[in-house]
Amino acid sequence: GQQLNQSPQSMFIQEGEDVSMNCTSSSIFNTWLWYKQDPGEGPVLLIALYKAGELTSNGRLTAQFGITRKDSFLNISASIPSDVGIYFCAGRFMDSNYQLIWGAGTKLIIKP
Amino acid sequence: KAGVTQTPRYLIKTRGQQVTLSCSPISGHRSVSWYQQTPGQGLQFLFEYFSETQRNKGNFPGRFSGRQFSNSRSEMNVSTLELGDSALYLCASSLGIGLDYEQYFGPGTRLTVT
To answer: Any idea what DSSP says for residue B4?
Structure first.
């Protein structure tokens, strides 16, 4: 079935650094969603994107819907300890019967 | 507005037993999706319901089943439990089915099979 390629798989960062992660697909997507999951909890929606080229911010987080509609990026500026967790991208495209397709996640770890 | 609630939060069962998990969506939401997440893994899609009808189904054996009630509440059932069924089971709800609908997750039910 359709999959999203999310990278990197994990990131080790210093507090204060900027972070960037992305998702790519071989299909054209109509919707991109970015979620964060803390250990033992359900994912929380961070940002939703609906138009190609759309750039949306949520505090220190910024996400973009790629122009080709086959990718999306999430950036976190000036990371802080509470940014630690797993970030997931998810998307929908016309032929998916509206089912959300998920990336495998990017695990963010703060170096001590 | 209350979020998605899942009960129970934690459950311990033995191999061969069956289990039923419950999900109450956000008020007004008519679509419910279920996911399985094993440690360190991503979200594996189980099924999606809308207006009491299963709309999509993932690649899980027939031991996994679900249903949705007229009030949009949903249950999933796993029969003949196996050790590999130990996982966090997540429920997500959305207003409807379509390109523009966002999913909101509950806290999950942690199932341990011994």
So the answer is: -
Bridge partners for A102 per DSSP: A90
Q: What angle do CA B15, B17, B19 make, to 5 degrees?
A: 120
On whether any CB of chain B is under 8 Å from the CB of A92, the answer is yes
What proportions of chain A, in percent to the nearest 5, are helix, strand and coil? 5, 50, 45
Average pLDDT over residues B47-75: 95
CB pairs under 8 A between A and B: 56
From CA B91, how far away is CA B106, in angstroms rounded?
6
Q: CA-CA distance, B112 to B2, in Å (whole number)?
A: 27
The rounded distance, in Å, linking the Cα atoms of B107 and B5 is: 7
Cα–Cα distance for residue pair B33/B20, rounded to 1 Å: 15
The 10s digit of each residue's pLDDT in B23-53 is: 999 999 999 999 999 877 788 999 999 999 9
B33/A40 Cβ within 8 A: no
